[in-house]
Structures are given as structure tokens and as C-alpha cells.
Fold this protein.
Amino acid sequence: MSASAAAARVAAPDVLRRYALCVGDTSLILAQRLGEWVGHAPALEEDLALANIGLDLLGQARYLLTYAAQLEGRGRSEDDLAFLRDPQDFLNLSLGEQPNGDFGQTIVRQFLVDAWQLQLFEHLQSSSEPRFAELAAKALKETRYHYRFSAGWMVRLGDGTEESHKRVQAGLDELWKFTGELFAPGAADEAAARAGIAPDPTTLRSAWLASVETVLHEATLKRPPDVSYRWFGKRQQHSDHLSHLLAEMQFMQRAYPGAQW
């Protein structure tokens, strides 16, 4: 047994569980945000594309939350973790919970997350935990499509009309402050990296930034300055936006506990 595999066994199950929630919660919350666009996107093709991306993210979330529930060993299911946890129990990135805004802002949020997930899933293919490696192999194929879609729209909007450029630049200026969290380790990241389960997030930034800046250059958009920001979802420090999102997402399960249909 390799040293990393041995470390992973020692770290399980709590390290595995918390890291599964970090990645799974981000996919779940972003899927919910994209679901809000169904029937409201600017054109049918984009409506379907956003819905399909949301379904891909939901599939990732189901896989990881099911795994987290098994590791927890308290008899809870993926549905319990999705619909019956309070906001302070979620470990998603703050970027994912930000409101949709207009179509340009949604595209910016998706692009920044897609570029990050490309790097994350590429590295997770080598995880010492087979369940993460299995997820990454499938999710990477999906994320490549997501990235092509969002990067393509970044260029079309940024290098489009004066109005589209203004809107997508405004979205980039608004959301850039949340990107620092992508590469700032939380407790779950640090423990997972030590165990060989996941990459150290600080090592992902250079490749992410290179891909982002290439697209921004083509889109004639300006990269905003890096700033510190106090919301840190991986440390369970969320904005009020998450509470509002969960109130809607969890309504049926909380109003009618255990309902079957």
C-alpha cells in the first residue's frame, strides 16, 4: 500500500465525508441556481443548455451526498443532506450561492466555477480514494462541455455589443472577489490533501488563472483586482443568499417531512 493510500484509510471516514460535502454542496447549490433560469433564459437553446448543466451538477451532488451520508453512518440519505440541513451546515463555495443577476452575470459565475472544476477534477482522477477518482473521471467530461459553453458566451458577450460588454464586465467585477476562496484551503481541503485524497487548492490557481485570462483577453474584458472578502462558504460562513435559496429549495421536504410521491 502506498503512503498516500495508507493515510487515506487513517483519515476516513470524517475527512472523506467533509470533503465530499465541500465538493458536493457546491454542485448542488449551483445546480439550484441554474434551475432558476428554466423558462427564463434569453433563448430556447440557452434555456436547455443551462438546464442540462444544472442536471450534470445535480448528478455530481447526488453521488457525493450519497457517499457522505454512507460515511456519516447515521441512517441519513442524500435527500436528508440536501433538504434537511440548515445553512450553517453547508460547505459550498460562496461563489456558487450568489444570485443569478442577468444572463451575463450568470455566465461569469458559471465560467469561473467551470474553469476551477476543470482543474479540480483533473487532479481528483489521481485521488487515493476510488470514489473520488470515479466521480472525477465522469465529471471531467461534463465539465469540459460546461467550460466550452460558458467560455464561448464570455467571448460572445464581452466582444459583442457595447451593452453586452458592459453587463458581463459588471458581472465579472461583482463576482471576482469570491474567487479567492477557490484556492484558500479550508480545514477539509487541508486534511484531504494530507491524506492524498485531493489536491492542495493553492496548486490549482496558476492553471486556472491562465485559462481564465486567455478567455478574458479574447473577450476584451479586464480582470478585476484581487481583494479579500469575508464570506467563506467552505468554513460555513455564508451570505444571506444561501438562506433564501435553501428556504425555497427545501420547502416541500420541511413542510411535509418524509412525503413520498
User: Anything to note?
Assistant: The longest helix spans residues 44-72. The CA atoms of residues 97 and 241 lie 6 Å apart. The chain has one domain: 3-255.
